[in-house]
Amino acid sequence: MKVIQSIGGFVILFILFSCSNNAEIYKSEYPDKNVRLRLNVQERISDNLLLEITELRDFRCPVGAVCSHTGYVEVAVRVFTDEGISNADLVYNEFRRGAENIDTINGHIVELVEVTPYPFIDQPAEVPENYTVSLIVREL
Fold first, then answer.
1. 3-class SS at 128?
2. 123 vs 98, higher pLDDT
3. What is the pTM of this model?
4. Position with higher pLDDT, 127 vs 31
5. Which has the closest alpha carbon to 107: 84, 86, 137?
6. What is the spatial distance between Cα 39 and Cα 139, in angstroms, rounded to a whole number?
7. What pLDDT score was predicted for residue 97?
8. pLDDT for residue 4 is more than 70
9. CATH of domain 32-139
């Protein structure tokens, strides 16, 4: 009986140590900052970078519809830096994640990871003010 308890204790310790190591790996893979933006609301990203969504256009295929393409979301962003104000256009495509969803803005890598809500065929289209754009921002 003591042998079984000892083996059980070792298994539990092994699991605990494995989880703690994975948690450290998990943390280190995550980016510097997760940001949620809304239309016409400025969000401070760093000491010298503010972002504001000025326009959002959703061309995604609504849930319940049959479309020949998945669609995308265009997000126009006003960029405030120490050097002045500029504009950037970002594109979000949920199914073709890659370079299309990533841009470099003033020494930061900005990746669009989610745009909500998702359109449904039997519901009226959401107004842009109701959308939330989730970004991952990493400093270069």
1. helix
2. 123
3. 0.70
4. 127
5. 137
6. 23
7. 67
8. no
9. 2.60.98
For residue 101, the one-letter residue type is N
CA distance 68 to 51: 33
4, two tokens: 């079984």
> Among all chains, which residue has been given the structure tokens 């994975």?
22
- The first and second tokens of residue 65, run together, are 């519809």
Lowest mean pLDDT among 20-34, 42-56, 84-98, 108-122: 20-34
* Structural contact between residues 132 and 115, judged by C-beta atoms closer than 8 angstroms: yes
- pLDDT for 73: 94
Q: Give residue limits of the domains in the chain.
A: 1-30, 32-139
Please identify which residue in the block is written with the tokens 């605990």: 16
Spell out where the chain has E strands: 33-37, 42-46, 49-58, 73-81, 84-92, 102-105, 108-116, 132-139
Which pLDDT tens digit goes with each residue over 15-35?
555 554 444 433 334 346 889
- What Å distances lie between residue 59 and 23, 24, 126, CA to CA? 37, 38, 12
Residue 88 β-bridge partners: 77
Angle among Cα 118, 119, 124 to the nearest 5 degrees reads 140
Residue identified by tokens 């998945």 is 70
Q: Encoding tokens for residue 139?
A: 């400093």
